[in-house]
Structures are given as structure tokens and as C-alpha cells.
């Protein structure tokens, strides 16, 4: 078997002699270095100390763990050596200026799913690379729509460490070869299956959902006997990176909608450094990512840590869930044409 392409070779080919692209390539390469370190650290589990211990910092429902801080600090350190003007992070209230004149901004969720660390479940690092603007230390520099991203992706630390990334030329998956310490291209231009019968949502919030989500999930639950006419399966890891990775690998739909809980009107995921990079990865793999009302990548951020509802994954399934939000599907699909013996089932 031919040796797969390395991350460095892939990015060198993509960047060629274009300085702007080379800067992006160097930045993703720097983040990959941290991912290799984190793979090693996380693999030690309890032997590496109390990584899952709370730091006691008050948050809005996302408890900060020691590993969150550690990962954040390593990312900041490493980005000091990359062409990055400023970095923003889930773990920092405000952006940190690194090198005012550098061409790029990076925003990260250093450790996604950190509540899963002591359960030995997959967790990850999410990142987005944006063009630098003026006044890069200001949060406003980061308030760019997802369509502006130059690179977006996430690492998953699980049985395998993988990098799922896009620079707008499809979505690529690199797998860490732990023997050589290099990421190798194992899945080029991945395609999310158009259809799926697997959904991912935190079902314990059912009582808080709005009607479109309630209808969507209830119809899935009713399986063959319901309006969808087929059985569905459900998966929820509590690590968005792991759920989105599964969906990129084999299809599915991920939903973290807004709900009626206090502070959850816009869901739970952070727009700039969680939802946007995952949404772009999904789109570049042929899937769809929506807030339920609009294309996720077109939402204009108004604050650095703002949340956004997210419905993402297999095209046909996401479009179905989105139609429920605009009311068309709720009228149409529930009509006799869509009943168990209906003509228009999909
Ligand atoms: O706990 P829930 O509501 O099922 O949500 C899943 C998790 O996804 C997250 O967005 C994971 O991200 P963090 O670990 O970076 O906070 C959490 O906020 C949340 O715990
Ligand atoms: Mg997160
Ligand atoms: Mg986090």
C-alpha cells in the first residue's frame, strides 16, 4: 500500500507558493503539534493527574476543568510561533494579542467534551482560522461570519486521534500515526451520506423544546408506525466533536437547538469556535448546517462567546428538520400523502 500523504505534504500542495495559504498551513500545523501532545497526555488518564478536576471558575453551565486550562495554555504558547495576530478561546474572556501585524486570527475550543474526560470517552479540540482585521485584540475582530473562515476543523482524541479539517477544498480526515508522530491523510474528500436514520440530541431536554424540534424527534421515535415510515436509531456522546465526527464518517443528524431553559434560547454551542468550524466541515463534506432558520455559516456574530442553535449532518435529514421550522413540513408531511402508506415518504 502506498504511504498516505502527510498533513504537511497535503498543506504544502494546497498552499503552493501563496503566502496567505502558507500562513494558514503553518497555523494548522502548529495546532496539530498541540494535538499530538494532548493525545499523549490524555492517554495517560489518571496517571497524568486530576485532569478532570474543576477549576472552580464560575461559568454558564460549562464547568471549567484543569485540562481545559492546560490545553488552552499550550495552544496559546504554540500559536506564538505561528503567523497569528490574536487568539480567542472558550477559556479566555477576551482575545489575546500575539503579534498585531500577523495575517490570521485563531479561535478555539481547546477541549470540547471535557466533562467526558474521566469517563474515558472521546473528546477534542475545535479551531477556526480567520483573516486578521484591524484592532485584532478587540473581540469585534473575531465577529466574522463562518463563511469567512480560512480553515476550520477539529481533532478528536479517542481510540484514534483524528483531524477533520477543511480549507474550502472538501473535508479531509487525517489520522495520527502514533509511531511516527505524524498525521496521515486517511480519508480524502469525505462525503456524508445524503440520508440517515440516526439522530443525536440530548433527549433529557424534551420538555424544554419548541414545537419544530419536538415534532421532529417525536416523529423519529414513532419509527415505522409514524409519519417517517422507518425506524430511527439515536446516539449522543455529550462531546459535539465525537458526534459530528461520527456523522462525517457515516451520516446522521446532530441537533442542539435553542430551548426554553434559562440561558438556552440559542442552544449551547458557541458560534465562533464550536459551531462554525464544525458547520463548515459538514458543508464541505456535502452535508448541511443550519440554525433551523438560516444557514449557520451566515450568522453574523454579535459577541465573542455567543451561542447558536445547530442542526447539522446528512442533507436530506437536516432539510427535513429545517422545513419543520418554517411550517411547511408540519403541514405537508402530516397530511395523508405522507401517512404510513403515503406516496412521498423520504
Ligand atoms: O451536556 P449536554 O447539554 O448534553 O451538551 C453536550 C456538551 O457539549 C458541550 O458543548 C461540550 O463543550 P465543552 O466541553 O467545550 O464545554 C458542552 O457545553 C455540553 O456539556
Ligand atoms: Mg465545546
Ligand atoms: Mg471546551
UniProtKB/TrEMBL annotation:
Binding site for Mg(2+) 2: 109, 112, 274
Pfam families: FBPase (PF00316), FBPase_C (PF18913)
Signal peptide as annotated in the record: none
Annotated metabolic or biological route of this protein: Carbohydrate biosynthesis; Calvin cycle
A GO cellular component annotation in the UniProt record: cytosol
Co-factor note (free text): Binds 2 magnesium ions per subunit.
Keywords, sorted A to Z: Carbohydrate metabolism, Cytoplasm, Hydrolase, Magnesium, Metal-binding
Domain Fructose-1-6-bisphosphatase class I N-terminal: 48-187
Location of the Fructose-1-6-bisphosphatase class 1 C-terminal domain: 192-324
Descriptive protein name: Fructose-1,6-bisphosphatase class 1
Species of the source: Hyphomicrobium album
Amino acid at each position: 500500500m502506498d504511504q498516505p500523504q502527510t498533513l504537511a505534504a497535503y498543506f504544502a500542495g494546497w498552499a503552493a507558493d501563496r503566502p496567505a495559504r502558507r500562513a494558514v498551513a503553518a497555523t494548522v500545523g502548529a495546532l496539530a503539534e498541540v494535538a499530538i501532545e494532548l493525545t499523549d497526555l490524555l492517554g495517560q488518564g489518571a496517571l497524568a493527574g486530576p485532569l478532570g478536576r474543576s477549576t472552580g471558575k464560575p461559568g454558564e453551565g460549562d464547568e471549567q476543568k484543569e485540562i481545559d486550562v492546560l490545553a488552552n495554555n499550550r495552544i496559546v504558547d504554540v500559536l506564538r510561533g505561528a503567523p497569528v495576530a490574536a487568539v480567542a478561546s472558550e477559556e479566555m474572556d477576551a482575545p489575546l494579542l500575539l503579534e498585531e501585524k500577523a495575517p490570521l486570527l485563531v479561535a478555539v475550543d481547546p477541549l470540547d467534551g471535557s466533562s467526558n474526560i474521566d469517563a474515558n470517552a472521546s473528546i477534542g479540540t475545535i479551531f477556526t482560522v480567520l483573516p486578521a482585521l484591524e484592532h485584532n485584540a478587540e473581540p469585534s475582530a473575531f465577529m466574522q461570519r463562518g463563511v469567512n473562515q480560512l480553515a476550520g476543523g477539529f481533532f478528536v482524541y479517542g481510540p484514534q486521534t483524528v483531524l477533520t479539517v477543511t480549507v474550502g477544498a472538501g473535508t479531509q480526515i487525517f489520522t495520527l500515526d502514533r509511531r511516527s508522530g505524524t498525521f496521515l491523510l486517511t480519508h480524502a474528500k469525505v462525503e456524508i451520506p445524503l440520508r440517515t436514520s440516526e439522530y443525536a440530541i440530548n433527549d433529557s431536554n424534551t420538555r424544554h423544546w419548541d414545537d419544530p424540534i419536538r415534532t421532529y424527534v417525536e416523529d423519529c421515535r414513532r419509527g415505522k408506525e409514524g409519519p417517517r415510515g422507518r425506524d430511527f436509531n439515536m446516539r449522543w456522546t455529550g462531546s459535539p466533536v465525537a458526534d459530528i465526527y461520527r456523522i462525517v464518517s457515516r451520516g446522521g443528524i446532530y441537533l442542539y437547538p435553542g430551548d426554553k431553559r434559562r440561558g438556552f434560547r440559542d442552544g449551547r454551542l458557541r458560534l465562533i469556535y464550536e459551531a462554525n468550524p464544525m458547520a463548515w466541515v459538514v458543508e464541505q463534506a456535502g452535508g448541511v448546517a443550519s440554525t433551523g432558520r438560516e444557514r449557520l455559516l451566515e450568522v453574523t456574530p454579535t459577541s465573542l462567546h455567543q451561542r447558536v442553535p445547530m442542526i447539522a449532518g446528512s442533507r436530506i435529514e437536516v432539510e427535513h428538520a429545517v422545513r419543520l421550522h418554517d411550517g411547511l413540513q408540519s403541514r405537508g408531511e402530516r397530511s395523508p400523502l405522507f401517512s404510513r402508506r403515503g406516496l412521498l415518504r423520504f
